[in-house]
Amino acid sequence: MAIVIIRQDDKIELWKKALLAQQPDLEVYSYLEEHPKERIKMALVWKHPEGALANYPNLKLIASSGAGVDFIFEDETAPKNLPITRVVDDMLAKDMSEHVLAVILSHLKNLDRYRVNQTKGIWKPIQYRRISDFTVGIMGLGALGRELASDLVKYDFKVQGWANSKKEIEGVKCFVGESGFQGFLETTQILVCLLPLTDATSGILNKNLFKQLPNGAFVINVARGGHLVDEDLLEMLNNGYLSGAGLDVYHQEPLPKEHPFWSHEKIQMTPHYASVSDTNSVVPQILENYDRLLNGSSLLNEVMMDKGY
Ligand code: NDP
């Protein structure tokens, strides 16, 4: 019985070492090395090359080493009917929360605009805004959205959220499903997308949605590039309806050099690095799930196959 790690970045050895540090007798391989394919029971994956999961006749579990699983569903050659698990981790949630707070404060206190002025040698005070005057609306109140919501309440923001099912979070006004969407949007001044990318949420950040936000709203997408209709965001920024956007994720990553986001003065960009799995923090739940798989017990953080998240 063995685990194979499949990912296209330079982190395979990092993950292998972290797994072996916590369980030295583990049989674990990089998909790039010679390995016995029939012994593989679990694939630990992150944006694997399409087709790579089809090579394992005895595979029983596909484990995402991050919170998202959209890339697994997008791979049509991945074996169907296998359970998929994902990462739910306090450190990942905290890192995301800190990132979003930084983007919001940068906007409210004009740090993004001062940075541009600095490069031009311009000394110009710009009226700042106060946290207590703003309502942040979070789309998605799962592992990440819920943590962010609670943290923002502590910072004195007015906070509301929207999810598929009803939620109770102290200090947070919660809206549910389609019927709650309009009420959520019309009172949200800073919108944060923390939805999973599924058929139901693809392209959800579009012109129709932006128009339902109050004039001057700010939009933060830290979920997936596929949630956003790029042209609609540009149009609503350029016509002055939206005051700005903070983007961490894009349709194509790295974002092509010619994309208009790069040079847009109302867009704060980061390179899909809001929050990444810390191996030491995440490895225990990966090993726990491997153990559960081998023992036939129920798995942690299993994805709902019908919903795609
Ligand atoms: P969860 O699965 O824990 O939470 C998803 C939330 O979205 C749930 O509250 C769910 O509702 C809600 N939701 C899903 N579909 C809909 C819908 N159609 N309408 C309304 N609400 C919906 O995910 P996480 O919080 O762990 O992660 C969210 C996403 O963040 C990931 O999928 C990933 O894409 C992204 N991410 C980005 C990172 C980055 O660095 N930029 C890092 C990590 C994650 P309900 O609770 O009712 O099911």
Automatic annotation (TrEMBL):
CDD domains: GDH_like_2. Coiled coil: none annotated. Pfam families: 2-Hacid_dh_C. The keyword Manganese does not apply. Keywords: NAD, Oxidoreductase, Pyruvate. The keyword Ribosomal protein does not apply. It comes from the Bacteria. Gene3D superfamilies: NAD(P)-binding Rossmann-like Domain. InterPro entries: D-isomer_DH_CS, D-isomer_DH_NAD-bd, NAD(P)-bd_dom_sf. One of its GO terms (molecular function) is NAD binding. Residues 101-274 form the D-isomer specific 2-hydroxyacid dehydrogenase NAD-binding domain. Transmembrane segments: none annotated. PANTHER family: 2-HACID_DH_C DOMAIN-CONTAINING PROTEIN (PTHR43333), D-ISOMER SPECIFIC 2-HYDROXYACID DEHYDROGENASE NAD-BINDING DOMAIN-CONTAINING PROTEIN (PTHR43333:SF1). This is Glyoxylate/hydroxypyruvate reductase A. It comes from Zobellia amurskyensis. The lineage of its organism: Bacteria, Pseudomonadati, Bacteroidota, Flavobacteriia, Flavobacteriales.
